[in-house]
Amino acid sequence: QVQLVESGGGLVQAGGSLSLSCATSGRTFSLYTMGWFRQAPGKEREFVAVISRSGGTTYYADSVKGRFTISRDSAKNTMYLQMNSLKPEDTAVYYCAAKMGLFSGNYYSDSTYNYWGQGTQVTVSS
Question: With CB atoms 3.0 to 4.6 Å apart as the test, which of 29, 48, 114, 123 could cross-link to 36 if both were Cys?
Answer without folding.
Answer: 48
